[in-house]
Amino acid sequence: MRRLIWIAVLLLAIGLLALPAVAQEPTLAGVIAERAAADTPEFSALLAALQGADPALLETLNDPGASLTIFAPSDAAFAAVQAAMGDEAFAALLADPAQITDVLRFHIVAGALDYATLNAGAEALSSLPFAQNSSLRITLPTLQGQHVDVLPGFEALTIDRATLTPANADIVASNGVIHLIDAMLQPEATTLGDIVANVGSTANSQFTLMLAALDGAGLLESLADPANDPVTLFLPSDTAFNAALAEMGITADELLADTELLTRIVNTHLVPGRVYAADLGGAAVFDPAPAWLAGFDDDGNALINTLEGATLTFGRGPDGQPQINGGNLFVNDVDGSNGVIFVVDKLLQPPSGE
After folding, report:
1. How confident is the model at residue 300 (pLDDT cuts 50, 70, 90)?
2. Which of 16, 46, 113, 303 has an alpha carbon within 20 to 30 A of 220's alpha carbon?
3. Is-contact 141 276, C-beta < 8 A?
4. CA–CA gap between residue 43 and residue 32 (Å, rounded)
5. Domain 192-344: what homologous superfamily?
6. Nearest CA-CA partner of 139 in 118, 156, 115
């Protein structure tokens, strides 16, 4: 039945191409079908992947009222993944509707974003005064839920780990735009707990103290469980941690031995749900409001609930650098399978006396 539904939608998409010249541009689904059937096929692997996915995804791409952008892997990109996975594993991916739908939805974002718009946003961020001393970047929410990164490059953009050139951009459909990229994007499958454990145990790591704090508070295991509700972690560097310890007049070992204080501090860095940089400046409209949002201040910046119960305040420094409680954000929107990570140069503490 699922295959029959897909075939019906595909036939509809192809049928749109046969209408008289007065018809508008084909939909995204129609463009993919048209190019896959061309003398020099393009998007044939993408079409095969859509065939294995939930039929609702193709229906979305054929919806004339939609407005979407697809970062479409080339046939060569699909072939590279097949070679890396092996024929059997790749065939199993295409035969698993839930898994291939998840992967394909990670390639689709809301809104028709042409190359000029993407490039302007990435270049605008990179030109800000604080950009040279941080790893902040533009990220776009996908239909899968996680975000893709958009980074400027030399005569091209980097979309996560794929390259988008102007020559392969701006394939226009009636309900969006397609950009041909040279690699298949993969949503992050690693949990926050595993990400912190990995970066905290590398040589010359700057996150050893937060790794020890999460472990000592009994929360590292929780963050490593993909079944738990998603959270956002503001991850302080060791430099930030040591500066705060000096102000507090205690050593790291003394803090790790004080389980109550340690747990309160760690929970002040954890926010319920997925929070992204674009959510924090007040431009987004939430209905209903997410659990992490306590409200907005007079400047329209987000007030953020933490698992500790304290409220964090988003703001900007003198040069416009994004901040949380006065701590600069240096890395944003790092996706894990169960949440998001920001890197901050300040240890966030609950108000004294709470």
Report:
1. confident
2. 303
3. yes
4. 6
5. FAS1 domain (2.30.180.10)
6. 118
Whether the CA torsion 304, 308, 309, 311 is positive or negative: it is negative
Q: Is the pLDDT of residue 231 over 70?
A: yes
Q: Is 127 helix (H, G, I), strand (E, B) or coil?
A: coil
- Please write the tens of the pLDDT for every residue from 93-145: 999 999 999 999 999 999 999 999 999 988 887 776 666 666 677 889 999 99
Same fold, 2-181 and 192-344: yes
Distance CA 347, CA 325 (A): 9
Whose structure tokens read 């072939």? 79
pLDDT in tens, 7-27: 444 444 444 344 444 457 899
pTM (two decimals)? 0.85
Q: Is the peptide bond before 73 cis (omega within 30 degrees of 0)?
A: no
Domain spans of the chain?
2-181, 192-344
Distance from C-alpha of 301 to C-alpha of 281, rounded to nearest angstrom:
5
Buried b / exposed e across 29-65, counting CB within 10 Å, b at 16+?
bbbbbbbbeeeeebbebbbebbbbbbbebbbbbbeee
Q: What angle do CA 125, 126, 129 make, to 5 degrees?
A: 90
Question: Do 104 and 98 form a contact (C-beta atoms < 8 A)?
Answer: no
Q: Where are the alpha helices (DSSP H) in 208-350?
A: 208-216, 220-223, 238-248, 252-257, 259-268, 277-280
